[in-house]
């Protein structure tokens, strides 16, 4: 009897794992089955599909660059801090992770629209309007992607042996040299992982983008928006675009795993 | 039940009134564009009543043998322009809308949604062309309106009833922008009819009687009064 229950227990974990795997795999398989392979190339080379692909690549890369530029200093500050002040700051920065993206979009409107807190001056003084243009997409994507970079890099900085930095300084290295030759190489895996996670999040962004930057073909209609827009009119094209999104994301995440993600 | 997004306010009122009169009834409302709703129902969404802004979405359901009886017309609607009230962005006709589109963004529904289809018709009748690159497409009537009331779209084409609702919402101090509703010249305007029908495959469903009662309520005097108060025309 004890052997039987032992065996049952041994099967429990792989069994649950199999259910978990099916849960992810079946919808993806369904998508592959529903795809119209014969028209795939034609669907992907529609002008709307091409412009969505182009916009998605450009905007997600720009958003990732912004996330890295502003995210690293943020992660660095957070990793130094202790206590409630840091906890509050971290909560604030990580908020877009849990906020519904549409709410993020509305929040962005209150700040950057033509009647927003600083959007109004931007528009009146410089004629700059962020809403409904490609920069608005980049802004929305940065808003949701930044926390992914910050949280990953902060974890890397915290788990790093900070004494090595002190050693470098006692050996005469200045602050920037220490950063360049000690800190950055040590947290490079986290930086790369954070960059890719931020990019993947930016690529899939929908809610904040459609709310803040609208849905304009060729200007703000990125892949996820094009997929949603074409579900009614041209479901084949919508599925073809989804497959592209899946393929790209999966490839990157698989490549990343062996090299970098293991370390975090 | 599933209802076109332009029915959101009035159907919420009507279903509240209906549930007060029929305490055993529980009406759950699902709003989106009629074409999206029709697609959802075809995919098996558990819906007892469909109320759509065009006949086409309804015909799709009846072709798939998903409605129990011929659909009934229960209201009509027309299009209107909503525009920002400041002098610089204000438009008063479809032609002015096209001029404004050269420098700003205009909000319209996606062409698969009835409100987008009708807006295209109105523009075509008026001989006005607006390049796609100047149009932000809302997935249904309410997201389109929101691009004007909360976003930075300077103007948009929505239903008369949406425009009315936006105006009455401006009483609240929270509304971001002041918008105006401008009628579209009757020569170009599109008259749209709303249709309602029971969804299902067999008539012996236990909810059947209540669904029928809800449809009767909408077609009755009190139901029609709610609709006309919201700016809908009678069928």
What do you see in this structure?
The complex is a heterodimer of chains A (264) and B (235). The longest helix of chain A has 34 residues, at 47-80. The two termini of chain A are 42 Å apart. Chain A has helices spanning 2-34, 40-44, 47-80, 83-98, 101-112, 119-126, 134-159, 163-170, 175-204, 207-212, 223-233, 235-259. Chain A is mostly helical and 264 residues long. Chain B starts with a strand and ends in a 6-residue tail after the last helix. Chain B has helices spanning 8-21, 34-42, 55-63, 94-101, 114-125, 141-149, 160-169, 208-219, 221-229, and strands at residues 2-4, 30-32, 49-52, 72-77, 79-84, 106-109, 135-138, 155-159, 179-183, 192-198. Chain B is 39% helix and 20% strand. With 235 residues, chain B is of the alpha/beta class. In chain B, strand 1, helix 1 and strand 2 (30-32) form a beta-alpha-beta unit. Chain B is built from 9 helices and 10 strands. In chain B, helix 2 packs parallel to helix 3. In chain B, the strands form 2 sheets. In chain B, strands 2-1-3-10-4 form a 5-stranded mixed sheet, sandwiched between helices. A 5-stranded mixed sheet of chain B has the order 7-6-8-5-9. The A-B interface holds A 106, 109-110, 113-115, 129, 131-132, 210-212, 214-220, 228-229, 231-233 and B 33, 35-36, 39, 105, 107, 110-113, 132-139, 143, 147, 150-153, 176-177.
Short description:
The complex is a heterodimer of chains A (264) and B (235). Chain A is mainly α.
Distance between the termini of chain A: 42 Å
**DSSP strand count of chain A:** 0
Q: Can you count the helices of chain B?
A: 9
- DSSP E strands of chain B, number: 10
Helix content of chain B: 25-40%
């Amino acid at each position: 009897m004890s052997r039987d229950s032992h065996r049952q227990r041994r099967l429990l974990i792989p069994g649950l794992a199999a259910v978990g795997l099916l849960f992810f795999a079946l919808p993806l398989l369904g998508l592959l089955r529903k795809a119209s392979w014969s028209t795939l190339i034609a669907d992907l080379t529609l002008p709307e599909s091409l412009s969505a692909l182009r916009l998605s690549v450009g905007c997600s890369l720009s958003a990732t660059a912004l996330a890295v530029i502003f995210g690293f200093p943020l992660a660095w500050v957070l990793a130094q801090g202790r206590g409630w002040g840091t906890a509050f700051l971290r909560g604030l920065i990580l908020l877009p992770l849990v906020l519904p993206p549409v709410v993020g979009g509305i929040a962005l409107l209150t700040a950057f629209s033509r009647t927003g807190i600083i959007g109004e001056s931007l528009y009146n003084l410089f004629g700059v309007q962020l809403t409904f243009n490609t920069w608005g997409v980049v802004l929305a994507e940065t808003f949701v992607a930044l926390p992914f970079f910050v949280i990953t890099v902060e974890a890397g900085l915290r788990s790093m042996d900070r004494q090595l930095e002190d050693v470098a300084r006692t050996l005469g290295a200045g602050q920037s040299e220490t950063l360049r030759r000690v800190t950055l190489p040590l947290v490079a895996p986290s930086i790369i992982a954070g960059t890719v996670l931020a990019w993947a999040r930016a690529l899939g962004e929908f809610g904040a983008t459609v709310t803040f930057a609208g849905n304009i073909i060729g200007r703000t209609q990125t892949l996820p928006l094009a997929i949603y827009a074409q579900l009614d009119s041209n479901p084949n094209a919508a599925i073809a675009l989804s497959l592209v999104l899946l393929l790209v994301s999966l490839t990157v995440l698989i490549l990343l795993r062996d090299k970098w993600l293991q370390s975090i | 039940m599933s209802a076109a997004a332009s029915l959101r306010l009035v159907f919420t009122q009507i279903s509240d009134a209906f549930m007060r009169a029929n305490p055993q009834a529980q009406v759950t409302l699902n709003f989106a564009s009629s074409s999206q709703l029709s697609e959802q129902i075809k995919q098996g969404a558990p819906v007892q009543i469909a109320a759509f802004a065009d006949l086409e979405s309804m015909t799709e359901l009846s072709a798939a043998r998903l409605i129990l009886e011929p659909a009934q017309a229960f209201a009509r609607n027309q299009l209107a322009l909503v525009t920002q009230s400041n002098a610089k962005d204000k438009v008063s006709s479809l032609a002015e809308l096209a001029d404004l589109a050269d420098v700003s963004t205009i909000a319209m529904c996606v062409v698969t949604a009835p409100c987008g289809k009708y807006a295209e018709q109105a523009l075509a009748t008026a001989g006005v062309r607006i390049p796609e690159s100047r149009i932000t497409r809302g997935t249904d009537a309410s997201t389109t309106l929101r691009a004007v009331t909360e976003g930075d779209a300077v103007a948009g084409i929505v239903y008369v009833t949406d425009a009315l609702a936006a105006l009455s919402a401006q009483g609240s101090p929270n509304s971001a922008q002041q918008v105006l509703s401008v009628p579209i010249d009757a020569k170009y305007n599109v008259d749209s009819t709303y249709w309602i029908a029971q969804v299902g495959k067999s008539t012996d469903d236990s909810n059947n009687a209540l669904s029928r009662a809800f449809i009767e309520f909408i077609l009755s005097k009190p139901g029609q009064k709610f609709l006309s108060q919201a700016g809908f025309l009678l069928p």
